[in-house]
């Protein structure tokens, strides 16, 4: 027997947190009856579970890495009919979804899965799974400004967690710098807002690493399935 929200998440319908919202909204049925209690336990063998009257199937978990190009939405659908990340997975039968998001104009490493529990592990700030970005910014950040990024900045009334930051290069001709920054949070437009806060707006942004994972030889729009050892290491990072 497993908690209802976990069964829904493991089926790839949505994350566990959003599954809890679906239950509370009365959009989930067990054996044909609406269930609103979050602690409800069900048998994946004997009980039938429906979300919005659609029967869910328990899928085997799958894990993918995508080199997300710019101008692609980190979602499974878009009401403006723009290209979304799952468009690159049309041959994948499982109902996968992106883990977190990359901004529309940000490229780089994005993970997708149908494993809601794994997705929650990767996204929760307390688990400190670091994502590393390469940012091209206006001007040259001073040592003091780099230290401010490292310590954490107050953005919209909330202080960011300490970051790992390294100034890689500066080009006088274009009045710009390349900065590497690693964070384990995932607030909306966080990296861009952090650089704006120190007076160096981002011109270009790419996520190059996700914990120990790198893009390797992937090109924009290309993908690959994660190896079991890679999934294992990500889980170990999240629980240490």
Distance between the termini: 27 Å
CATH-assigned homologous superfamily of the largest domain: Pseudouridine synthase I, catalytic domain, N-terminal subdomain
Oligomer: single chain
General shape = elongated
Helix % is 10-25%
Query: How many structurally independent domains?
Result: 3
Mind describing the biggest β-sheet? Answer: 9 strands, mixed
CATH topology value of the largest domain = Alpha-Beta Plaits
Helix-strand category: alpha+beta
What is the average of the pLDDT values? 93
N-to-C order of helices and strands? EHHEEEEEEEEHEHEEEEHEEEH
Poorly predicted runs of 5 or more residues: none
Beta-strand percentage? Answer: 25-35%
Question: From the coordinates shown, what is the CATH architecture of the largest domain?
Answer: 2-Layer Sandwich
The CATH class designation of the largest domain is Alpha Beta
Helix tally equals 6
Query: For the CA atoms, what is the radius of gyration?
Result: 20 Å
Number of strands: 17
Give the topology, please.
Layout lengths: L1 E2 H7 L5 H9 L3 E3 L2 E2 L6 E2 L6 E3 L2 E2 L7 E6 L28 E2 L8 E7 L2 H8 L7 E8 L4 H9 L2 E2 L2 E2 L4 E8 L4 E8 L6 H8 L4 E9 L2 E2 L8 E3 L2 H12 L1
Parallel strand pairs: 9-15
Antiparallel strand pairs: 1-4, 2-3, 2-5, 5-6, 7-9, 7-17, 8-9, 10-14, 10-15, 11-12, 13-14, 15-16
Helix pairs in contact: 1-2
GO molecular function, one term: RNA binding
Enzyme class: isomerase
EC number: 5.4.99.-
Structure commentary:
The mean pLDDT is 93. This protein folds into 3 domains: 2-55, Structural Genomics Hypothetical 15.5 Kd Protein In mrcA-pckA Intergenic Region, Chain A (Roll); 63-124 and 218-239, Pseudouridine synthase I, catalytic domain, N-terminal subdomain (Alpha-Beta Plaits, 2-Layer Sandwich); 130-210, Alpha-Beta Plaits (2-Layer Sandwich), CATH 3.30.70.1560. Helices cover 22% and strands 30% of the residues. The strands form 4 sheets. Strands 7, 8, 9, 10, 13, 14, 15, 16 and 17 form a 9-stranded mixed β-sheet that branches. Strands 3-2-5-6 form a 4-stranded antiparallel β-sheet. Strands 1-4 form a two-stranded antiparallel sheet. It has helices at residues 4-10, 16-24, 116-123, 143-151, 190-197, 228-239, and strands at residues 2-3, 28-30, 33-34, 41-42, 49-51, 54-55, 63-68, 97-98, 107-113, 131-138, 154-155, 158-159, 164-171, 176-183, 202-210, 213-214, 223-225. The protein is elongated. The longest helix is centred in the last third of the chain and has 12 residues, at 228-239. By secondary structure, it is α+β, with helices and mostly antiparallel strands.
């Amino acid at each position: 027997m497993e908690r209802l929200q976990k069964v829904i998440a493991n089926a790839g319908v949505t994350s566990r947190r959003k599954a809890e919202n679906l239950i509370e909204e009365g959009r989930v049925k067990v054996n044909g009856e609406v269930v609103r209690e979050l602690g409800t336990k069900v048998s994946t063998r004997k009980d039938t579970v429906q979300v919005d009257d659609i029967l869910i199937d328990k899928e085997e978990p799958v894990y993918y890495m995508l080199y997300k190009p710019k101008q692609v939405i980190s979602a499974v659908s878009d009401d403006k009919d723009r290209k979304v990340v799952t468009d690159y997975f049309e041959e994948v039968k499982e109902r996968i979804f992106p883990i977190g998001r990359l901004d529309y104009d940000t490229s780089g490493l994005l993970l997708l899965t149908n494993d809601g529990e794994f997705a929650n592990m990767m996204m929760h700030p307390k688990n400190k799974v670091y994502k590393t970005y390469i940012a091209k910014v206006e001007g040259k950040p001073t040592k003091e400004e780099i230290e401010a990024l490292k310590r954490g900045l107050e953005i919209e009334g909330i202080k960011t967690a300490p970051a790992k930051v390294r100034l890689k290069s500066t080009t006088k001709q274009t009045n710009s710098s390349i900065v590497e920054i690693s964070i384990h949070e995932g607030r909306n437009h966080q990296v861009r807002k952090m650089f704006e806060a120190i007076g160096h707006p981002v011109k270009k942004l790419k996520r190059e690493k996700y914990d120990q994972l790198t893009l390797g030889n992937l090109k924009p729009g290309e993908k690959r399935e994660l190896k079991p050892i890679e999934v294992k290491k990500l889980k170990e990072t999240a629980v240490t």
